[in-house]
Amino acid sequence: MSLLELDDITKSFGAIHALQGVSLSIRPGEALGLMGDNGAGKSTLMRIIAGNFRPTSGAIRIEGREVHFHKPIDARNSGIEIVYQDLGLCDNLSAAANVFLGRELKKSFGPIRYLDYKTMYQRSGEIFAELKSETRPRDLVRQMSGGQRQAVAIARTRLSDPKLVLMDEPTAAISVRQVAEVLTLIRRLKDTGHAVILVSHRMPDVFDVCDRVAVLRRGTKVADKRISETTPEEVTGLITGAIGAA
What global pTM score does this model have? Predict the structure, then answer.
């Protein structure tokens, strides 16, 4: 059974039709690359899945059950987490503090409540170990590489043990070595049964870690193929419009 199914999703902003009848599905442990030129509708689709936007029409199903997301917490409660391109990290805080940002653990001593740093450091360390990341819970984010920052953002999604992780351009503007770290993190997510939707302009990344690739052009899905059944040249043609559909 599919983990997530999108059925004929449309989204309009006034006279602008951002998405037109997009259907998509993904299974547990699968990585789907979502590609398209700027303005193709990728970010709009991701924000609908993450609960930031409501579709104008169409249905969203999680494990066969239709769901309606009114806000991001609804998507999170259904097992969906998103890592945005800007990561949303606080540079002046530690890795652990960022992992638990907004979901801090607290203890009580009589009428006094205080942050349970010990448990947050311990749990963060366990998640970084699961991801096989060298990031340490007490490290300050401002001193981290791009790859380590991605590890913190991904670790934050693991707190709720999501079924699906959405990743928006995670390898943009980082070094080759850091790109390799991020792709390894995506493989770890797949190995532990998580589904991943990867939005990326980097063709090698999609062909390296994804099982399938879907292409959007001007708000319409023009292809949805297994990686083994397509080529970077074909996907490029689909993105640019040199190839109509596949």
Answer: 0.85
